Amino acid sequence: MATLLRSKLSNVATSVSNKSQAKMSGMFARMGFQAATDEEAVGFAHCDDLDMEHRQGLQMDILKSEGGEEGGEPPLEGDIHYQRDGTGPLPPSASKEGGVCSELSGQGKPKITAWEAGWNVTNAIQGMFVLGLPYAILHGGYLGLFLIIFAAVVCCYTGKILIACLYEENEDGEIVRVRDSYVDIANACCAPRFPTLGGRIVNVAQIIELVMTCILYVVVSGNLMYNSFPNLPVSQKSWSIIATAVLLPCAFLKNLKAVSKFSLLCTLAHFVINILVIAYCLSRARDWAWDKVKFYIDVKKFPISIGIIVFSYTSQIFLPSLEGNMQNPKEFHCMMNWTHIAACILKGLFALVAYLTWADETKEVITDNLPSTIRAVVNIFLVAKALLSYPLPFFAAVEVLERSLFQDGNRAFFPNCYGGDGRLKSWGLTLRCALVVFTLLMAIYVPHFALLMGLTGSLTGAGLCFLLPSLFHLKLLWRKLLWHHVFFDVAIFVIGGICSVSGFIHSLEGLIEAFRTNAED
Questions:
Q1: Which of 27, 81, 165, 271 is 20 to 30 A removed from 408 (C-alpha atoms)?
Q2: Does the residue 98 lie in any domain?
Q3: Are 461 and 155 in contact (CB under 8 A)?
Q4: Is the pTM of this model over 0.85?
């Protein structure tokens, strides 16, 4: 009897301990420890549930611990979505009915406030890629500043209409949520003739943006280190190789818990760096070159600036899961307003002040203009942030590729890359390493931060932020739209399409020219 009593007390204590640890994990994550490095927008998400777990904390720990308490199973440690050891990969239906998404959409899961949701959006659109905005002003002048404001307004609007596509009116006239993700919206627009085409297009766009974001991190790491220590006999390509060697262990990632612990510190460091740059620029306010800010544009290079500006605002890919996790979804519109207003003001001031300080000498990465005395310190912090941010888009890209190509049941193109025991097969690990090496090769042969950022923004950024939301809104809700909404949607689609095509062509031309130059060297 005593033994049985001790056993029950031990089980209760273990359950309480696991549950308290899980709640602490979720609390810290909701305070920002998880979401701080999601800045590309990238929305670093596949089917939005991946991003939800990154950003809202590992709530699955709580769900699993409560389920284990009822069913007698001990809770798994860590995020069960990524836990591979002994559990096996998630089945293809995990993100659908009865899976992860359905559990996360339950009534018992932790919710986030509008302020916490705003913190997540701010982290996505206020990342280190704002360092390229002064370069956009160099080629766009006052029109570049206008585009920073215009892009904020349009991205805020398209974020709202994308969320509107998640809802429909039921038989009782009530507005209910019938979709969970960007992929669901895309599939609904292409149904019934092509029920999965839209989702595949969105997934391809996500993969391109995620991989390009990884490439940008390698490029910026090599660029910053080379310009921080110009006297060392180490080229930018060599610094990129060193950075990739540090990043190679990302291929062995099973979950992102260890990486996410550093995310808040990375973001705080980035804000400190921005403040230092602005403080230095303000100290030289007497020498500001107001006469250099023109109304005319560089026709050849300004389209690249459009892609840079658009890429800095990409956040639409994770908005559906974010809105679904808010305590009061009605506050979503207000949250989008103040986050994008703040982003617009901060980005505009940062870009203008930095350009006024260095004028025509403004470089692709603005920190390269700083004096050598402080440049090295600032750049080392930025390199550390870039290296710690790399695993998030890399892991998200790997998850999307694995699910769509290797784990999609009978529709998978290749055999499952995981064994029956849940361990990653050797050839699957080789493919992961190959993806890391691919980002290195791209960074070596095209080491141009602004060109790559402009290309990504024009191709996937404009598509995910401008074209697809307006098209989906018209397709799903056109019968209920007011005339001005139809006008806005059509205008955004047309303008976004023109800017996207123009920016893509000019960025691609620049990349081809740069590739030829590097090949000749």
A1: 165
A2: no
A3: no
A4: no
Beta bridge partner(s), residue 77: none
- DSSP assignment of 367-406, as one string? GGGS-HHHHHHHHHHHHHHHHHHTHHHHHHHHHHHIIIII
Q: How far apart (Å, rounded) are the C-alpha atoms in residues 55 and 62?
A: 15
Q: What is the pLDDT along the chain (521 residues), one digit of tens a residue?
A: 455 444 544 554 444 444 444 443 443 343 333 333 443 333 333 334 444 443 344 333 434 444 444 444 443 333 333 333 333 344 333 333 333 333 333 444 578 888 888 887 887 787 777 888 898 888 888 888 999 999 999 999 999 999 999 998 888 878 889 998 888 899 999 888 888 888 888 888 888 888 888 898 899 899 888 888 888 888 888 999 999 998 888 888 776 665 555 566 666 777 778 888 888 999 999 989 888 888 777 777 788 788 888 888 888 887 888 888 888 999 999 999 999 999 999 899 999 999 999 988 898 888 888 888 788 888 888 888 888 778 878 887 887 787 777 655 555 556 666 666 666 677 778 888 888 999 999 888 878 777 788 888 888 888 889 999 999 999 888 777 778 888 999 999 998 898 888 888 888 887 787 777 766 66
Residue owning tokens 């056109």:
478
Rounded to the nearest 5 degrees, what angle is found at the Cα of 178, between the Cα atoms of 177 and 183?
A: 110
CATH number at residue 244: 1.20.1740.10
Is 439 inside a domain boundary? yes
Domain carrying residue 220: 125-408+425-520
* Rounded (10°) angle between helices 133-164 and 483-520: 140
Nearest CA-CA partner of 162 in 489, 512, 396: 489
Rounded Cα–Cα distance for residues 486 and 470 (Å): 9
Residue type at position 185: I
